[in-house]
Write a structure and sequence with these properties.
The protein is mostly beta strands. It is built from 4 helices and 27 strands.
């Protein structure tokens, strides 16, 4: 996503992350920096930048050192990190009318002095859109009805929309609860009950995925590329795919778990079965095609985009390819594990699958 930061604004490409809530970018004078193509943000050159005094109510959910400024520490599963102080500044976003912009004052963000991670050169930081008060979605709040949407296409530019999309199809809706853990309310959690490969139901043992258990819950996360599943579910899925796929295997040095196949054309892709994730609810199936399930590894070869979990199960960005996801973030007073979220899936609208997540009050 592209964000204008400061006054006058400088545009930066940022990674949207649904599993975190801090917004940060690298700043001028950083002592540890990763390479980026855009100039580092210089708070001294912005008329609207102001450091945040510690212990304001906005930062109740963040570990911080209370000194003269409000410090932050952002740590991610891929070992990316960013540390320094919170500031507020004006953010600028392009509207749905191309060429027109809207400014939002006093957006709290981290001005990173120590930043580490492996990012594309055009990336300057991360925008957290999780559920805590620091999330960009909660900071925009009533201005966007606490709602945002995104689409992660297989090719082209990702789309992020604040508020209600102007043209939203309502065909073939499917729904399932979307939950969260009271003791860790940042994450959006799905209730996965079983998986089908082609027409073969895997019969995952009940309780393998538990949305009320931090160790066995399944997080939907746009900031993690691959999907990670409980080892038992992963093994059954991989074994079933391996039995069903009649393509030449590819041996890749250093890759022992994922399935790799030689794929030369569309006909080869058609020989890979779809995988359906059965989420709770009467109509909660999420069907994933072969081009989303397997990702390009090298010319003429594809790699399974699912791994056994390490620190927990994650429904990652690659498997959400060509999905449209709309989420409504609830007020902070909503803390019950069974808050009535719903997720709707719309199949084959302009060759895309659309997913919408709402809070039903």
């Amino acid at each position: 996503m592209t964000v204008g930061i400061g006054s006058p604004k400088i545009e930066y490409r940022m990674i949207m992350d649904t599993a975190s809530s801090i917004i940060w970018t690298q700043c001028e004078g950083c002592t540890i920096c990763f390479p980026q193509s855009a100039p580092l943000f210089d708070p001294l050159n912005s008329d609207t930048n102001q450091k945040v005094e510690c212990c304001t109510s906005l930062f109740d959910t963040v570990d911080r050192d209370c000194e003269e400024t409000c410090n932050y520490a952002a740590d991610y599963e891929d070992h990316s990190t960013s540390y320094d102080v919170f500031s507020t500044v004006t953010f600028t976003f392009e509207t749905s009318n191309e060429g027109t912009f809207v400014t939002v004052p006093n957006v709290a963000f981290g001005c990173g002095e120590e930043n580490e991670g492996v990012f594309a050169r055009e990336v300057a930081g991360i925008v957290g859109v999780g559920r805590s008060s620091l999330s960009l979605i909660n900071q925009l709040g009533d201005n966007i009805n606490h709602k945002f949407s995104y689409c992660l296409p297989e090719q082209g530019t990702n789309t992020l929309v604040f508020g209600t999309p102007a043209h939203m199809p309502v065909l073939n809706l499917k729904s399932t609860p979307l939950l969260f853990l009271p003791n860790d309310p940042i994450y959006y959690i799905l209730d996965l009950q079983d998986i089908t490969v082609g027409i073969t139901r895997l019969r995952i043992p009940q309780g393998s995925f538990d949305p009320t258990d931090e160790q066995r819950s399944l997080i939907i996360d746009s900031g993690t590329a691959y999907t990670y599943l409980h080892r038992l579910a992963y093994d059954r899925l991989s074994q079933s795919l391996d039995r069903a796929i009649r393509l030449q295997k590819v041996v890749v040095s250093g890759i022992n778990l994922q399935l790799c196949y030689r794929v030369q054309n569309n006909l080869d892709f058609q020989r890979i079965p779809a995988v359906t994730f059965h989420f709770s609810g009467n109509n909660g199936d999420w069907k994933v095609g072969p081009r989303t399930l397997f990702v390009p590894m090298a010319p003429g070869a594809v790699l399974q985009g699912i791994l056994p979990d390490i620190h927990g199960s994650v429904f990652g960005a690659l498997i959400q390819g060509d999905m449209f996801v709309e989420k409504t973030v609830p007020p902070s007073r909503v803390t019950a594990i069974n808050s009535p979220f719903s997720l709707w899936c719309i199949q084959d609208f302009n060759h895309h699958t659309f997913i919408m997540l709402h809070l039903l009050l």
